[in-house]
Amino acid sequence: MVTIVNPDLDRYIHEHTEPPPALLEELREHTQATHPRAGMQVGRVEGALLRMLIALLQARRVLEIGTFTGYSALSMAEALPPDGELITCERDPDVARVARSFFDRSAHGKKIRIALGDALATIRALPASPEFDLAFIDADKERYPAYYEEVLPRVRRGGLIVADNTLWSGEVLAPETPDGRAIAAFNDLVHRDPRVAHVMLALRDGVTLARKL
Ligand SMILES: C[S@@+](CC[C@H](N)C(=O)[O-])C[C@H]1O[C@@H](n2cnc3c(N)ncnc32)[C@H](O)[C@@H]1O
């Protein structure tokens, strides 16, 4: 993941965005100290955006694809009401264990259920209702189009799909890798889709918001 904005401006944005609760900061530090791919965490600014979207939508049910060590899941759970529910999909039991250990230390952790296993299989096994208010896609990039097609019918009208890394370090301009081609195909799919209103944000590595019409 790269940030596409000037590093000084990126720091300024970081410093002028509300800080996360202490436990999230501890999770960020723990992941950075112990995991070589800690850069996958959404971090302070995108975490705050996710919380903001959940509050604006008055969301109660959230689906996440790609838990990793739990930063985005815990960020979103904090904004859910006490009876809110977040299902987060992860195939790697080691990172899921770290995530659960942090969720269990949070007053909001009881809202989170980790679905261990392949995300596509997990989503396909979900019942058609109740629908989700928000779905956050942040796992294997080659499957973004498939995740989108499976998730959209399970999101309520007016609900939101948020997809991370949709600029793929700028590679979408001239995709050369399977991941880059998949993200570019996903972006074209959303852009052509009459079922959603959509906007791409130049935040971090690119974030797409698609609201179901
Ligand atoms: C970019 S990281 C998610 C970062 C997370 N949202 C955060 O803020 O910390 C992507 C995660 O998706 C998981 N993943 C990749 N492919 C998957 C699949 N097919 N099913 C379930 N999880 C998958 C990876 O193991 C990885 O932990």
Map the helices and strands:
Elements: H1 7-15, H2 22-34, H3 43-57, E1 61-65, H4 71-79, E2 85-90, H5 93-103, E3 112-116, H6 119-124, E4 132-137, H7 144-151, E5 155-164, H8 178-192, E6 196-201, E7 207-212
Helix pairs in contact: 3-4
Bound molecules: S-adenosylmethionine.
The site of S-adenosylmethionine has 18 residues, from helix 4 and strand 2.
List keywords for this structure.
213 residues, alpha/beta, Rossmann fold, seven-stranded mixed beta sheet, 21% strand, binds S-adenosylmethionine
What's the gist of this structure?
With 213 residues, the chain is an alpha/beta fold.
Biggest sheet architecture: 7 strands, mixed
- Mean pLDDT, nearest integer? 96
Low-confidence stretches: none
Distance between the termini: 31 Å
What form results from the Cα inertia axes?
Answer: globular
| CATH H-level superfamily | Vaccinia Virus protein VP39
Q: Rounded to an integer, what's the Rg over CA atoms?
A: 16 Å
In terms of DSSP E residues, the strand content is 15-25%
Q: What letter string, H or E per element, gives the SSE order? A: HHHEHEHEHEHEHEE
Helix content: 40-55%
Protein name: SAM-dependent methyltransferase
InterPro entries: Cation-dep_OMT (IPR050362), SAM-dependent_MTases_sf (IPR029063), SAM_O-MeTrfase (IPR002935)
Keywords: Methyltransferase, S-adenosyl-L-methionine, Transferase
Organism: Sorangium cellulosum
